[in-house]
Write a structure and sequence with these properties.
By secondary structure, this protein is an all-alpha fold. The protein has helices at 12-28, 36-59, 64-90, 96-118. It is 72% helix and 0% strand.
Length: 126
């Protein structure tokens, strides 16, 4: 029998995604004012959506296909966040080291999500 989780807040991937969303919010405060309604709002939305969709997936875990669907959305939001990080680096809002740190965190979360997607029975109700 797999590990029993009390809730999505117990999941390491959720904790990492939530932390990433908070850290990107703080990081995006450094972006120029002219990006407030474009890059800033987009990266904040996508990075927060990673954790939000993990929480939604957990609510649907009774339904295997719904659980996987919401995890795939979370995976996509992590991809989107990585693209916004690339734009921020390319426009010199982030130096390469900071970009790499945050991009690597996105990729780590994606690997964890992919594992959950490939083995949903470890998390879903039977």
């Amino acid at each position: 029998m797999g590990t029993k989780y009390q809730g999505f807040r117990d999941l390491i991937v959720f904790k990492k995604a939530y932390s990433l969303g908070n850290d990107i919010f703080e990081l995006s405060k450094l972006f120029p004012a002219n990006e407030q309604y474009s890059l800033t709002v987009q990266i904040r939305r996508s990075s927060r959506s990673i954790a939000a969709n993990i929480g939604e997936a957990w609510a649907f875990r009774k339904y295997l296909k719904s659980f996987i669907y919401k995890l795939n959305i979370s995976y996509g939001e992590a991809s989107e966040t990585g693209i916004w990080l690339n734009f921020a680096r390319d426009h010199k809002y982030l130096d390469t080291a900071i970009h790499n740190e945050f991009f690597d965190r996105c990729e780590e979360i994606q690997k964890m999500l992919r594992s959950m997607i490939n083995q949903p029975e470890k998390f879903c109700n039977s």
